[in-house]
Each structure stands twice: as C-alpha cells, then as structure tokens.
Amino acid sequence: MNPFDRTTAVPALPNQGGQANVPGLRQLWLIEARHLLGLTDPRTLPTDLTGWTLPENGLQLSEDAQVINLRFLRDRSGYSQKATNSVHGIAYAQALVLEIPRDHAQTTLFVARMTGRKWVAVYQDGNGLYKLVGTPSQPLRFSAEFKAAPNGYMCSWTTDTRWPAYHLAEQPGRWLLDAEFSYGFSYDFYS
Predict the structure, then answer these.
(1) Is this prediction's pTM over 0.85?
(2) Mean pLDDT throughout 138-152?
C-alpha cells in the first residue's frame, strides 16, 4: 500500500440493516471555486481510512466567499456520479440537477448569474448526509434549459473528476449552515 494513498485496501461494507434510505436532496450550497483557498485530500491523512471523508476544517474559504443556499422539494433535485474507465484512467462524471418550476424574472436573473462561473457544491441528501462535489481544479459548470411544457428550468452543475465526491466528516460548520438564504430562490417562486 502506498503510504500517501490509504485507499488501496478494500474495507468491509457497513451493516445498514433496518436503516431507512430516503431519496433526493434536501439542500444545496454553492461556492465559487475561486473562493476555495484549500481542500484537504483525505487520502493523504495519517489516520485510519474512513472512506472518502473530508475532515473537519477540510475546506478553507476566503473571507469574502459568498455561499449560496438553495432549498427545494426532494423530488425536484438529484445527484449522480458515474465512473468511466478510459485510456487516461478512471474518471467520475458528476452531476447535480435542480428543477425550478415556473418562468419568473428572478429565476432568469438567477440563471444569468450562475452561468459562466466555476462552482464547488456541498449538498445534504435525504438521509441528512453531506457531500462535497467538485474541486477548485475540477469545478462544476452550470447550465440551464428552459421548457414551456412543463413551464420551468432544468438546471445542472456538472464536472468530471479523478476521484469520487468527498463525504463530509460532520455536519458542515457555521460558515455553511449560516449562509444567507434568499427567499427569491426558494422552490415556490412566489406561487
């Protein structure tokens, strides 16, 4: 085993008998990749292997970082990660998707301001677990498609990375959970 990469040993799967598995996402936090000053690679930590788990304080943000918090209904969002093998090695295609119903001027402004920027995201899934998607060197790219039937936007943040998305060791710190929530970007959109 490489002493700098502690992921070569195959661990036993945890016993998950009797536990509920709730689908979908609860919340999404977006941070522009340029505001991420550092990211601890959990594979290089001198502790026991606990999976792809980012340690507490594993993300270092700049002082002027703005965290965008999006809340939505579970059936309007999702996350996928697909490993592919090529001549260049293994890559993980990662995608976060969010359906925003109804066409509204504020939604159009949201889409315009998301477009063209590089993002890193933290999401909370239906089971209450947190994951980091994207890195400063392999950020998420935003795209949106509007359709009139049904009326709304299908937004997506996608990237290809060399490693799977990182789990967060604990509930994110106050820097993430205290992010200012904009009711203009809530699921309802004034409905």
Answers:
(1) no
(2) 91
